[in-house]
Specification:
The chain has 914 residues and is of the alpha+beta class. The chain has 32 helices and 25 strands.
């Protein structure tokens, strides 16, 4: 076979010399040729150009077009089916004879090159025009196949080309509004190096955009481990001006990415002896920084360079591309904890009120924790107003700003670890080592003592402040009831008066709620300390977590349980009355049962129901969403709740007795653990007592918060009726599609757009579209946050990699083991029949407590050990596991589950029942 070419496959030297040829090679291949032409060591490669790849796809083009014509991109099953059928078509097409012959020639040339040693393996990658720029829609969308033998190259080329129609790419195209025309893709075939160390070097700091600082990330083995985050890697920071290594983070490297011994692909190998030393020498780090800087100067833009060092110590460059989004501020949004109170989509009014409430509360509580007036003023404009964000109708914490809350107060950084653990938030902060000596150490100690003194003073003031909040809540309630009385003058409840009342609510009651944040902080820290003490006493981490959970069972005085006890008492009265029992067991609908309770013979029971509604009517599913109606507006919803309890035979006293027995057993275990440990036992008991008290107050304040939001619901419903009466909206409930700021502007004449009907219609259409979308728990944006939030790549097209798992793992919160069919609820339904099933939900809020009581157990995708779900599960003895990723997609209604609330596992026992 000769080395003559037909032009189907482009050599590196051709790309460097012929710009026209490079235009058919894609961005990745063109950059490799530029590196090689500049004198850098690049593994030998060749390229199947875009015209050649178009020839390879031509035989299956019509069949692909037919499949795509009928595709519904919103149907995950259809995406999987069409993608797999297209993959079969593309991978099943053999290479034309002339291309196959030239590929053999190219492989022989590459195998004879200086980088080859022994059997040569190859990397097969896509190379799309504009792929390595910030504007291309398909960057990162196509597959790469590593560790390919010469005989398997045709199949690997087909795999790369077929990935242009992968599930994710098809979904991405549909969301981006692109057609399904074939991508102008080339394919790079390159010798795969036996890398000892590999990674990425940036010529500038990719987060700050600082061109004077280079950043190197390195790991053992192939570079895939760094890019995919599958192995531990080191990070080094280099001053480009002096070449000095200014900082380094050296990980314990326990694994490396290596070629798979079983054919194409890679594997993560565990090392017998973990490497604790740096993966790169100082000389190598400085060499990389110098090369990246030189490339940035040569190409006129900061560069992101992939590299590899072979065992002989020689540097090879694998790729270079412009660094995108340099200098853009990174913002991290996370809803792991906030979704418990605001699951799914929330109305614009709910979000805007919540944003304002967080601003007022945390401005006040920052002072409580020791922020000076100067610190508060400095952060008034860009911190406190932006503690929460919204993405397509869903509410997220702006985690980046929450870290700032801690770090703005010198000496408070110690509390971040406990806060992250309590909220089950992925760690983002690494505390720097404390100064070892000198003035810096004395200053650090002084700052820490100042913080502790402030916290101690706040703790002493806590009972008085808690009483003050509930007193202010009672006063606000009385004032609103007086103001909304129909006998009062009209001007007391007109739009201006309602807005003025709401402003007083934010100015007076909301700042008083800051005591809850201080109490939450103490609960989180003491809860964390209890776990640390148990581990230091010799328990393994899992055993310590289990014992800690059990020590918090059976707590008296938790007001959040009172609504359940009241409802169970109503159910007990129904059981004891034959006429009531017949009514509730009969075929009548909930509305019909409630209407029948108006009969004189049921007057006493109806009065008891109305007392329950008056006292606990604000405790409902999705209770903190202003658009959610309180129970008083739909009293018939009490009927299915009582029917569930009648079927299940739940008894509050039995539940509490069971939890107290667990608590006593845990206390005996702890006593044995600390036997003979005088001081440590005293410290543990103190931490446990404080943690229990503050966790209890946390739940009590949450019930107070529900009642406070109940007041706002009444105000905005009245405002909606006035908008409707004035002809501004077609339905009083349209008020929920406006923001608080828009309502104020409409009332006082500063609105730039007064066409409310158009605004409401547009937002309703957006929410209808967003309802079907699935967004991740964490969103990281750079630059303008809206551009990242609107990126279609955020959406998840279908089940994740955990599909098919039989044992799912989460956080065990309430001990107990139960086997029962699953009841999967995407949204809570107060009318759903529950009789011992295991509830499976993406998240739960405090209002789920009425559903939880009738269930055999609860599994949630989100939550933490201190979430409301966990606390109520412990109080009522309901086995509970939270933090199980993707559980609502992996489990179907009727699937028989074995839930272990102690171990934190959910086992799929049998397939779903018919």
């Amino acid at each position: 076979m000769t080395s003559a070419t037909t032009g189907a496959i482009l050599r590196a030297e051709t790309l460097a010399a012929d710009p026209a040829a490079a235009a058919h090679a894609g961005a990745k291949a063109a950059n490799l040729a530029r590196l090689q032409a500049a004198g850098y060591r690049v593994p030998p490669f060749a390229v199947l150009g875009t015209d050649t790849c178009a020839r390879l796809l031509a035989p299956s083009a019509d069949a692909i077009a037919g499949l795509l014509a009928e595709l519904d991109p919103d149907d995950p099953a259809a995406l999987r089916s069409v993608s797999s059928r297209i993959r079969a078509l593309v991978e099943g097409c053999p290479l034309p004879g002339d291309i196959a012959a030239e590929l053999d020639t190219v492989v022989a040339e590459l195998a004879a090159g200086p980088a080859a040693a022994g059997e040569v393996r190859f990397a097969v990658r896509s190379s799309v025009r504009g792929e390595d720029s910030a504007t291309d829609s398909f960057a990162g969308q196509l597959d790469t196949v590593l560790n390919v033998g010469a005989a398997d190259l045709p199949a690997a080329i087909g795999t790369v080309l077929a990935s242009a129609w992968s599930e994710r790419t098809l979904f991405y195209r549909a969301r981006r509004g692109l057609d399904n025309a074939p991508v102008a893709c080339a394919v790079v075939v390159q010798v795969l190096l036996d890398s000892a160390v590999s990674g990425v070097v940036f010529s500038c700091n990719p987060r700050s955009g600082d061109p004077s600082e280079a950043v190197v990330a390195a790991a053992l083995g192939l570079g895939e481990g760094v890019v995919a985050g599958t192995v531990d890697c080191d990070t080094y920071f280099v001053d480009r001006g002096t070449g000095a290594i200014t900082s380094r983070v050296v990980a314990d490297k326990r694994s490396r990415v290596a070629p798979s011994p079983h054919g194409a692909g890679t594997t993560v190998e565990e090392l017998a002896d973990p490497l604790t030393a740096a993966a790169l020498s100082d000389t190598e780090i400085q060499e990389l920084a110098e090369v990246a800087g030189a490339l940035a100067d040569r190409f006129g833009a900061p560069q992101d360079v992939e590299f590899a060092y072979t065992p002989d110590g020689r540097l090879h460059l694998l790729q270079a591309r412009p660094v995108t989004a340099t200098g853009a501020r990174e913002t991290v949004f996370d809803n792991v904890n906030v979704a418990e109170s605001y699951p799914g989509l929330s109305s614009p009014l709910t979000f805007s009120v919540l944003r304002t409430a967080y601003e007022r509360v945390f401005r006040t509580c920052h002072r409580d924790f020791g922020a000076t007036a100067r610190i508060v003023e400095r952060n008034a404009a860009d911190l406190y107003p932006y503690l929460v964000g919204t993405a397509r109708g869903r509410i997220y914490y702006n985690i980046s700003n929450w870290y700032r809350l801690f770090l703005e107060i010198p000496g408070m950084e110690f509390a971040i670890e406990g806060w992250e653990a309590a909220l089950n938030i992925e760690n983002r902060y690494q505390r720097p080592p404390a100064p070892a000596r000198g003035i810096a150490r004395l200053r650090a100690i002084a700052l820490r003592l100042r913080v502790f003194a402030i916290i101690l003073l706040g703790w002493l003031r806590l009972p008085r402040r808690l009483r003050a909040f509930f007193k202010a809540l009672a006063a606000a309630t009385t004032d609103l009831e007086r103001r909304l009385d129909e006998d009062r003058p009209e001007r007391d409840r007109d739009a201006h008066a309602l807005l003025a009342w709401t402003e007083r609510f934010f100015d007076e009651l909301v700042p008083a709620y800051s005591v809850q944040i201080f109490n939450d902080f103490l609960a989180q820290q003491m809860f964390h300390v209890v776990g640390l003490q148990l581990r230091r006493a010799g328990l393994a981490e899992e055993a310590a977590l289990t014992l800690r959970n059990e020590l918090f069972c059976g707590e008296d005085g938790v007001d959040s349980v009172d609504p359940v006890r009241s409802a169970l008492a109503l159910a007990a009265r129904v059981r004891a009355d034959s006429a009531l029992r017949a009514l509730f067991d009969g075929p009548s609908t909930a509305q019909q049962v409630w209407a029948s309770l108006s009969e004189d013979r049921f007057a006493t029971f109806r009065a008891a129901c109305l007392r329950h509604i008056a006292e606990f009517g604000d405790r409902t599913v999705d209770e903190l969403k202003l658009e959610t109606d309180p129970l008083g507006e739909h009293p018939e919803r009490l009927v299915p709740m009582l029917r569930n309890y009648l079927r299940g035979g739940q008894n509050a006293d039995d539940m509490i007795a069971r939890e107290r027995a667990i608590r006593r057993a845990a206390e005996r275990t702890a006593a044995e653990l600390f036997a003979g440990e005088g001081v440590r036992r005293w410290v543990f008991r103190l931490a446990l007592r404080l943690a229990r008290e503050h966790v209890k107050q946390r739940e009590n304040m949450r019930l107070g918060r529900s009642r406070a939001f109940g007041l706002l619901k009444r105000v905005f419903r009245e405002y909606g009726r006035r908008l409707h009466a004035d002809g501004l909206v077609g339905d009083p409930r349209d008020v929920f599609w406006l923001t608080y700021e828009e309502i104020a502007a409409l009332t006082r004449g500063t609105a730039v757009d007064t066409d409310i009907t158009r605004t409401v219609a547009l937002r309703k259409a957006d929410y209808d579209r967003w309802q079907a979308q699935r967004l991740p728990s964490r969103i990281v944006t750079t630059g303008i946050a809206a551009s990242g939030i609107s990126d279609p790549a955020l959406e998840q097209p279908g089940p994740d990699a955990a599909e098919g798992a039989r044992v799912l793992h989460g956080i065990g919160c309430a001990p107990g083991r139960v086997e029962a069919p699953a009841l999967v609820l995407d949204t809570p339904d107060p009318d759903v029949a529950i009789d011992g099933q295991i509830l499976v939900a993406a998240t739960t809020d405090p209002g789920w407590v009425f559903l939880m009581v009738a269930a055999g157990g609860l599994v949630s995708e989100r939550g933490s050990l201190l979430s409301h779900t966990a606390i109520i599960g412990r109080e009522l003895g309901i086995p509970t596991v939270v933090g199980v990723p993707g559980v609502t997609r992996l489990i179907g209604n009727g699937d028989v589950l074995v839930l272990d609330g102690r171990a934190g596992t959910v086992t799929l026992g049998q397939e779903r029942r018919p």
